[in-house]
Amino acid sequence: MRWVLVIIYTLCIYAFLPVSPHFWDFMKRSHPVFLNLMVRGIIPAGIFIFLFYFVFILRKRGVLSYIYSGILLLSYYILIKLFCRYPAEVFHSIEYGIMVIFLYHAMKDRRNDTIIYATIIVYTLMAGSLDEFIQLFLPDRVYEFRDMAINWISGLLATGLLMVVTMDRQSTDAFKDRVKEPEAKQSTI
Question: How many domains are there within the chain?
Fold first, then answer.
C-alpha cells in the first residue's frame, strides 16, 4: 500500500504538468500577493518546522547532526533563491522533497539503509528526468536542463536531510541498546 501512495503521488505530479502554466498564470494575475507570500513563506516555514521537529521532537544532541542539517538546509535555501526564477520552480523543489518522504515511508521497514537511500536517489532522479521529458511533448511547456537539475538537487538534498535524521536516530538507538545490555547482564548475576 505504501508504494501505491508513492506511485499516486508521482502520477499527480505528472498529471499537473499540462495545466500548471494556466494555474500559475491565473495565480499571478488574480492573487499576486498571496502567491508571493506563499512562495516566500513556504521556505522559512518549512525550515522552521524541520528544525522544530529535529530539535524538540527527535531531541537531537549530536553536534554533527546540526552541522550537516544546517549545511543541507542552507544549500536548499540557496538552490531556491539562486536557481528558482518562478514560483512553479519553488514548488517543484518542494514536490521532490515530499517525494523523498513518501519513498522512505514505503521502504522504512527494510534493514539495509544503503539500499533504501540508493533507491530513493535513483527514483527521484528518474522521476525528475521523466518530469522534464514529458514537457517536451506538452504545449506551453519547455524542456530545460536547469529545471531537471532543480528536481535532482532537491531530491538529493531531501535525501541528505533524511539520512541525517534517520541515521543519527539509529545510532542513538544502537547506543542505548548497548548500554542496556550490560545492565541486563549485571541484574542476572
Answer: 1
Asked whether the beta carbons of 157 and 168 are under 8 A apart, the reply is no
pLDDT in single tens digits along all 189 residues of the chain = 889 999 999 999 999 999 988 988 898 899 888 887 777 777 667 777 776 776 667 666 677 777 888 888 888 888 888 888 877 788 887 889 889 989 999 998 877 888 999 999 999 999 999 999 999 999 888 888 989 999 999 999 989 988 888 875 555 555 455 556 555 555 556
DSSP conformation letters of 113-147? HHHHHHHHHHHHHHHHHHHHHHHTTSTT----HHH
Integer Cα distance of 125 and 112 in angstroms: 20
CA gap 146, 2 in Å, rounded:
31
Q: Among positive and negative, which fits the CA dihedral 23, 28, 33, 35? A: positive
For CA atoms 43, 148, 117, 114, the dihedral sign is: negative
C-beta atoms surrounding 17 within 10 Å = 16
Compute the distance between CA of residue 157 and CA of residue 93 in angstroms, rounded to an integer: 10
Provide the residue type at 21 as one letter: P
Host domain of residue 151: 2-188
Give the global pTM.
0.78
| CB distance 135 to 17 below 8 Å | yes
